Amino acid sequence: FFSFFFETGVEDSSFAFGLLMELTRAYLAYADNSRAQDSAAYAIQELLSIYDCREMQTDGPGHQLWRRFPEHVREILEPHLNTRYKSSQKSTDWSGVKKPIYLSKLGNNFAEWSASWAGYLITKVRHDLASKIFTCCSIMMKHDFKVTIYLLPHILVYVLLGCNQEDQQEVYAEIMAVLKHDDQYTISTQDSASDLCQLSTQTVFSMLDHLTQWARHKFQALNAEKFPQSKSNRDKLDSIVSTADYEDYQSVTRFLDLIPQDTLAVASFRSKAYTRAVMHFESFITEKKQNIQEHLGFLQV
Predict the structure, then answer these.
(1) In angstroms, what CA-CA distances link 19 with 69, 159, 218?
(2) How many CB atoms lie within 10 A of CB 283?
(3) Pick from 147, 116, 149, 150: which is nearest to 28 by CA?
(4) Relative to the CA of 170, which of 54, 133, 156, 163 has its CA 20 to 30 Å away?
(5) Largest Cα–Cα separation, the chain
(6) How many CB atoms neighbour CB 72 within 10 A?
(7) Is 295 left (phi over 0), alpha (psi -120 to 50) or beta?
(8) Coiled-coil segments, which residues (predicted)?
């Protein structure tokens, strides 16, 4: 199921298509805000160039991608084939920024937290193409958190594929800060804190779901390579690729295993995602071989 519909990475034309559609939505949504619209225009311009997406005589990937867009979208995209927008984004010195960012000065409302965290994570992406794509979109994230939400799951995958132990620990700390957001804090402060908590938790869930799907897809691909239909001279090369793929798979699954199932269950319950809460609670009981009687208090919360 996942291997058919799942966008494996930034090279996937479905990823490019989805992202350009999302940026087209943002571009139209900001007709009355020239700075935001220019930021969307810049990202569109850069992506069309990166993917070589345009009308061509030859039927290459760029041409095929271009033909996937409905005509009314192509009409919006076409002028951006010849624009000359430059990014005026100032680079942030992240070393001086407090981590976790959640609930810090840069993370006390959802739009700011998500854009700041995404911006920081992008600096940790080692994959050249992914880094280029995320960076040209980062200028738009300050204006439209829907673009941020759209990209964060993909950004996280690429961070985990190339990061060191320290980076991984920072990602873990940020996610745990969101999942363990204290209820008392939310109740005692204004509604905006509650919104921050809800939206941030949902965003973290979608990121973890994406990692799970990515790992499942990678596992299926690795299994398919293990039992190929035919042998060829490329076996040696394939085994090198498989080793790198397996290490990628390990990086993601190890990270997922770090997030405690009981923490996910409580956070799901707090977000009123009851089906998800039960799923994580069941995983917790099975994983820890816990006696369900000891945890009935959680179910009665």
Answers:
(1) 12, 19, 22
(2) 15
(3) 147
(4) 133
(5) 68
(6) 8
(7) alpha
(8) none
Identify residue 11 by its one-letter amino acid code. E
Query: 245 with 218: CB under 8 angstroms?
Result: yes
pLDDT one-digit tens code per residue, 139-188: 999 999 999 999 999 999 999 998 999 999 999 999 999 989 865 454 44
Return the closest-CA partner of residue 214 out of 241, 250, 251, 252: 252
Closest listed residue to residue 67, CA positions, set 56, 82, 83 = 56
Cβ contact 45:82 at 8 Å: no
- Helices and strands, counts by H and E, the chain: 15, 0
Cα separation, 135 vs 92, whole angstroms: 13
Residues 181 and 201 sit within 8 Å (Cβ to Cβ): yes
Cβ of 96: how many Cβ atoms within 10 Å? 6
Tell me the three state secondary structure of residue 54.
coil
| Whole-structure pTM value | 0.85
The end-to-end CA distance of the chain, in Å, is 36
